[in-house]
Amino acid sequence: MVDTILKIKKLYYSIGEVSEVTGLKAYVLRYWETEFKQLAPPKNRAGNRTYRQKDIDLIQKIKDLLYQQKFTIDGARNVLGGKDNMIMSQTKNKFSDKQKVILSKIREELKAILLVINE
Q1: Are 88 and 46 spatial neighbours (Cβ–Cβ below 8 Å)?
Q2: What are the residue ranges spanned by the domains of the chain?
Q3: Measuring CA to CA, which residue among 56, 45, 75, 65 is closest to residue 18?
Q4: Would you say residue 87 has pLDDT above 70?
């Protein structure tokens, strides 16, 4: 995850400051609030969002999942919610030993094909 380095350390940041630091438009940040329950910055008396450093770190993680790792919003939501590890462990337990060996061989053959294609 990319560390956020801000010029001035503050307790709260406005949506404009967060937008500038993360390189995301304000409407994207507002949309992500509707999609990710973990991202819920409180609002001040004037009704403006007040982001804390932990909110900015979460935004950077979401940005990485969506833009770099190419997750869908639903997939990123599952990763942030911890469901990703649960799904993977359930999937591993579904297969018999024979099926695991077959899948392993298929995986190795696909890797070999990729090496040939990339040459």
Answers
A1: no
A2: 1-81, 91-119
A3: 56
A4: no
Residues 6+ apart with CB under 8 A from 36: 58, 62, 76, 77, 80
Contact 56, 9 (CB under 8 A): no
**Model confidence pLDDT, tens digit, residues 37-71:** 999 999 999 999 999 999 999 999 999 999 999 99
Q: State how far Cα 26 lies from the chain centre.
A: 18
The span from the CA of 106 to the CA of 104, in Å, is 5
Architecture of domain 1-81: Orthogonal Bundle (1.10)
The end-to-end CA distance of the chain, in Å, is 32
* pLDDT, tens digit (0-9, with 9 covering 90-100), for 11-34: 999 999 999 999 999 999 999 999
Q: What is the pLDDT of residue 96?
A: 80
